[in-house]
Structure formats: structure tokens, C-alpha cells
Amino acid sequence: MIYLDHAATTAVSKSVREAMLPYFSEDYGNPSSLYLFAQKAKKAVEDSRRSLAGLLGINPREIYFTSGGTESDNWAILSAFYSAMGKKSGLSCSDAAGQKQRQPHIICSAIEHHAVLESCKFAESLGARVSRIPVDREGFLDLEALEQAITEDTVLISVMTANNEMGTIQDLRAIGEIAKKHEVLFHTDAVQAFGQIPLSFSEMGIDLLSASAHKLHGPKGIGLLVIRKGVRLPAFLHGGAQERGFRAGTENVPAIVGFAKAAKEAFATMVEREQRKRELQKMFFRRLLQEVPGMQITGVNPLETSEENRLSGNVHICIEGIEAESLLLLLDQKGICASAGSACASGSVEPSHVLLAMGKSHVEAYSGLRLSFEEDLKEEELEFTVEAIREGVERLRRE
């Protein structure tokens, strides 16, 4: 099998599994219990929190563990909305002069992950107003439109660090400056970028950040939300005093330990992995351009422009006259795992909202193919994949 869907999930590494094992069967105590046995689990949780905070250069008390990126995104967006509803007495009523109702206003990009888009849609159902800012043909946010969209009722800007389909990396520093200028909270979904590219809270002006372990060889079902010191949001889950009362529920100790271990390894090897993946990415694009007629590189073209604006392990293409799902079935028959876009949208009959937002037609959007890989991909596996894509395209065009 050639696994080329690392943007969807990754295998748990051996070292991460070994770090997690004791907390399944030996040190399995509840971290909230007072006796010494349970305090081993408590220490593991807090050591992991400190380790992750150190990687990001923040205070450990700014990290809150969640069940994954989706929960973290929901927490950031909905809690910002709930907080605004509680703080602004005039949000749900017109003033005496008959002015329009004031509503909490949320801004996001048009290419956000569904965890953000659906959270915003739910907030709308509760009375929020949401602005979805357009992007250009490479997937970059229109910063001028972003700033123009801000009003006195804007409570949150949510823009992903790197797109899960296209790999486009946004200018967080510029977005953070705009948010700070207008005193608006800035949230970034960094699920695809965490452990892949450097992130600096102080330089980028980030207030809230979502991340997930299973994208960097950690376990599924564990993530984090960073809430910068000074940002006050209401509790998201109610019940117990875990996570300082903001996120009730017994901590998933093995997963938390695994997350910290996976992140430590990812950050330690980031530079070396990045260099190798850049080489493979360029090789992939060159070979596909040579072998597959009617193929277009979608998003940033690292063969022509700054490669730093696209995740190194991402290859996304559109192929004229081909439906990606049909091609994926042919690739699967050859033992190649790839994707037509976000794993969360699998089974959907709708074309990629990301490609549509970037100006692609519906026909083009149905033809999008995503290959996401890591530094251990062998060149012969790359060549085999290119050949399989060429053969699959030729077969589909004959039928």
C-alpha cells in the first residue's frame, strides 16, 4: 500500500504508542482523585501540558485539552458568540431611534474547514451575523475585504493557518495585525499546520488556536485549544472542574501523553522533514505535468513562486474531463490511498467548496485530487503513483 492521505490522518508512531501504554493498564488512575496512585496520571497530564506549551512558547495555563480539532473550533467560535451575547446588552434589541438590531458579528474565510463553517452556521441560527471573506485563485484571503468587513459588533475573526485541501498558508501576521488594530479576537484553525511549520503567538497576534494530534502521528480523539491569557470565554462543557472548569470530563490521559510525545518529535524534526517534502512535492508536480495531459496545479505553484506559501506535503491537482472519485477507485485498486478533498466531506455529492471559492467551475471542482505525503515516501512509490494516475486518466477518458 502507498498511503498518500496524511492530511486526513497519520499512523500512531511506535514511540508515541510506547509513551501511551502505561496509562492504559499501569498508571490508569483518574487525575481528579486525591490519592497518590491517581496523582501519577495527573502529573502526566500537566507534564504534557507544559511540554506542548514550551513548543509554542506560551504559558501552560493557556492550553486546554479537547477531543480534537472540531471541538476546539466549536469552542472558539461559539464561546466567542456566547460571550458577546452576555456582554452586549444591546445585541438583541433595537434602540429608541429605531436603528437596526445589533448582532454579534463573526468573520471567517470562504475556505475554512467544515468544523469552522458549520459552527458559524450554527451561530447564525442563534442570532449571529457571519461574513465569509473571499480568496483569490491561489487560496489567499482578501485582506482588504477582511478589514472592510469589520464592524463595531465584530467579535471574532477565524482564519485557518493552512488549508486542508490546497495547503495554502495564510499570512497570519497580517491578519493578526488587523484584528489587534480593531480589538477583535483572532482564532486560527492550525490543525494542518501544527508541527509542520513554525507558529509564533507573539508575532502573529493569535488569541485562539486549534490543533489535533492525529495529523502528526499522535492518537485520534485528542486536540487542544489555546486561549491566550487575558481572553475571557465562558465554559464549553459543564459538569466537573477539569481544565480549570472550562471543559468538564475525565481527562483522556493516554491520548494527552501521546499528543505531547508526537508534537515533541514533530517539532524536533520539522526542518529536516520540510526540506525532504519540498523535494518530493516539486518532483511530484514535475512528473504529473509531464505524464498527465490536461492537468492543472491548484493553489500555489511551488515550481513558479515562493514554496513557503504552501504546505510541503501537499499536492493538489485538477484533471480536465475526469471525476476525481472515479480516479480514486482506480488508484485504490492499485493500493494507492489518496483523496478528493477533506476527509470530513467524504460521501458528499457536492463539489469542493474550497475549489469553488477559488474560482473553479463545478466541473473543475469535481476533478480535484489531493495527494498528501511525508518525508519517508520513496521515489519509486512516487513514480508508481504518477504512472497509476496517468493510466487511470487514460482509461476514464476512453470510457
State the gist of this model.
This protein has 399 residues and is an alpha/beta fold.
* The number of domains: 2
CATH second-level architecture of the largest domain: 3-Layer(aba) Sandwich
The helix/strand order is: EHHHEHEHEHEHEHEEHHEEHEHHEH
Biggest sheet character: 7 strands, mixed
Distance between the termini: 27 Å
Strand residues, percent: 5-15%
Keywords: Iron, Iron-sulfur, Metal-binding, Pyridoxal phosphate, Transferase
Cofactor: pyridoxal 5'-phosphate
InterPro entries: Aminotrans_V_dom, Aminotrans_V_PyrdxlP_BS, Cysteine_dSase, PyrdxlP-dep_Trfase, PyrdxlP-dep_Trfase_major, PyrdxlP-dep_Trfase_small
EC number: 2.8.1.7
